[in-house]
Amino acid sequence: MRRIHFDLEVLRSFATGMELGSFAKAADRLGRSTSAVSAQLKKLEEQAGTPLLRKSGRGMLLTEAGEVMLGYARRLLELNDEAVSAVRGVQLEGRVRLGLQEDFGESVLPVVLGRFKRAHPRLRVEVHIARNAALMESLQSGRLDLALAWETEWRAQHAQHIQSLPMGWIGAGAGQLPYETGEPIPLVVLDAPCLMRTAAIDALDRAGLAWRIAFTSASLAGTWAAVKAGLGISVRTPFGLPADLQVLDTANLPTLPKLGLALYRAEAEPAPAVARLAELILQQLQEV
Q1: C-alpha dihedral over 179, 172, 202, 196, to 10 degrees?
Q2: Which of 107, 99, 220, 175 lies closest to 235, judged by CA?
Q3: Where is each HTH lysR-type domain found (predicted)?
Q4: Among 94, 132, 194, 276, which one has the highest count of C-beta atoms within 10 angstroms of its own C-beta?
């Protein structure tokens, strides 16, 4: 049986096209013509021996085989890029200071730090877990090189929008609301100022629903503990949500807005190690 060797450049075009939602945009980012990328996709399907994409209106969707291929493509490209960074960056020394919210501590941090450490063994990463306002202040004062944080009215000069995440009402896993109809809605929230605390109160006020602050905490861990204990409901995005908590049915609760997530850089042209860590963070966020 003839061995098949997938071309990494072809896989990169495929993965980039799916990331951007357009192979024309992928061609532009990769510095290729659209026809060249189309030829690469045709080659990839021929090697795979099955269609990887199917038409859906004016766009393209992955087939079941395409979903499998995309997962492997990302892993192969990740390993390739890690090898390049390890070989070229082995002599890099110093530190990178990263700030992020508690939401991303378990879902992003372990994998990213592991990859970064393998590629740059002499570089030290200092991680600061803090609230949004504190992260923005540290970034502005030069105490952080990177920050993964929610978008606010304060616009950082070197911010990269990643995605917009829906905020939801969060309750215990059983889905039973911890209050009776007509009672003020008990809220479990972080200490003010807090973007999601404000969003929850504004939404309830606009809907004409009574509410009360049942529990406040300085940490997300404390918030989750109170929700699990049935003290009230909270507001958060699905990112990093514990398995025994869930987004509640909004039939009796007002709809909440989306919240933007961004990667903030202290400098427009960051050092190579900072740029690489930013790249790894963006890659991991695409996979979770």
Answers
A1: 150
A2: 220
A3: 6-63
A4: 276
What pLDDT tens digit does each residue of the chain (288 aa) get?
578 888 899 999 999 888 888 888 888 888 889 899 999 999 999 988 899 998 877 777 899 999 999 999 988 888 887 777 666 655 556 788 999 988 887 777 787 888 777 777 777 888 899 888 889 889 888 899 999 989 876 556 688 888 889 999 999 866 667 787 778 999 999 998 888 999 999 999 999 999 999 999 988 889 999 999 989 999 999 888 888 898 887 668 899 999 999 999 988 888 877 887 888 788 778 765
Phi, psi of 72 (to 5 degrees): -70, -35
Indicate yes or no: pTM above 0.70.
Answer: no
CA gyration radius, the chain: 22
For residues 276 and 284, give the distance between their C-alpha atoms in angstroms, rounded to a whole number: 12
